[in-house]
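Ticket #4471: structure output looks truncated?

Reporter: J.K.
Steps to reproduce: submitted the chain below (155 residues) through the standard prediction queue, then opened the result file.
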Amino acid sequence: MDDRPDSSSVSNTKENIAPVSFWLKRAAQYSADLYSDRRGKSGLTQRQFTVLEAVFHNEGQSQTTLVKETGIDRSTLADLVNRLETHGYLSRKRSDKDARVNFVSLTEAGRDMLLNAQPQVSLVDQALVEALPERNRKAFIASLQVLSEKLDEAE
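Returned output as attached by the reporter:
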């Protein structure tokens, strides 16, 4: 059975665009499936990779900064950081000034895991972009960036 919504009955704009949130969810699922196929059961999840990469680029920053950088909600990020710390990939240091604030850093094992994962993640990104007609690729990436910036503006 086809799980696509009937776009003929939906009118989000004057142009009668199909439900964008549905297509974004399907695209995200495709991305997750590609990632899972490339990384296998022995690697990081997509979100774990996202957190490690965010820490790499924001070494020693607070979990609040990581929430803003990743778009992952506070409680989910805290759970991810806990798991990554348990695996030995991250370390946390509580702020001397505010006990509610944790500063997060990569461990050597976390840096190694991230560096090991990056080539496969790049292949996933490449496969996602190559799934599109070449003439649409730049516009697609630019559109995703615009949507991501809207998230930043909302905070």
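Triage note (M.O.): checked the attachment and the full token line is present. The chain has a mean pLDDT of 86.
Status: closed, working as intended.
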